[in-house]
Amino acid sequence: MRSMRSAARRGALPGAAQRGRAPRKRRRAAAMAAEQRYPRSSIEDDFNYGSNVASASVHIRMAFLRKVYSILSVQVLLTTVTSAIFLYSTGVQAFVHERPALLLISGFGSLAVIVALTLYRHQHPVNLYLLFGFTLLEALTVAITVSFYDVAIVLQAFILTTSVFLGLTAYTLQSKRDFSKFGAGLFACLWILIFSSFLRLFFYSETIELVFAAAGALLFCGFIIYDTHLLMHKLSPEEYILAAINLYLDIINLFLHLLRFLEAFNKK
């Protein structure tokens, strides 16, 4: 009797094993189908897309950097071409110098557009239209400004700005230091510089101009480092427009302060 029971058990084991394997096979097949439908990399990418750029996957980081620096290159190119037209065309210079209100219009216009761009930076394609409008107005503002300077000084400021930006960018991207802690100090210095610049309206001198221009150039060197670190460690991959605008404004402000510094230095 025991032998018959044991034989029955032995005979029942293969069937039970097969029944146990069947759910596992079905689960494995379902998992493979799900992986084919939703690849593991896409799931990881969706998770990383909401985090900062540094913690995202490699191809998301590279795509983000390509977008940021492609937009930045177009912005700088448009500004450079517009400035060259205003700098070398005497007819354009005469038109602009006779209408100083154009500088105020373009300046306040770019300020209004950047506020709108900040609000709609995630709405495509509205954000791209606003980005183009802001870049065009900012390029006009810079072009009108450089039309009042000598060509040699403008070229010197352009070369210095390009060299400083490339050097600081390379340094920041390979550095392991945390530059985000300098943000509060940089913004405090920026407000001090803005309020102190009103002193030039009442106590203007070449020495004061030289000091403020040098301080402004150093300050925006710090902002280039800070914003380059910010785009990797604080911004998410969908914030490429904001990252490009931050760097573009840093470049423009560094260029304008170097322009003022070289002009004041040559006059002394």
Automatic annotation (TrEMBL):
Lipid bilayer topology: Multi-pass membrane protein
Keyword Membrane: yes
Upper taxonomic lineage: Eukaryota, Metazoa, Chordata, Craniata, Vertebrata
Pfam families, per database record: Bax1-I
Low complexity biased stretches: 1-20
Any single Gene Ontology cellular-component annotation: Golgi stack
Keyword Transmembrane in record: yes
Cellular compartment(s): Membrane
Family: Belongs to the BI1 family.
Regions crossing the membrane: 68-89, 101-120, 127-147, 153-173, 185-204, 210-228, 240-262
InterPro entries according to UniProt: Bax_inhibitor_1-related
Top-level taxon of the source organism: Eukaryota
Gene: TMBIM4
Sorted UniProt keywords: Membrane, Transmembrane, Transmembrane helix
Gene Ontology biological process terms, A to Z: locomotory behavior; negative regulation of neuron apoptotic process; regulation of calcium-mediated signaling
UniProt-recorded name of the protein: Transmembrane BAX inhibitor motif containing 4
Region (Disordered): 1-25
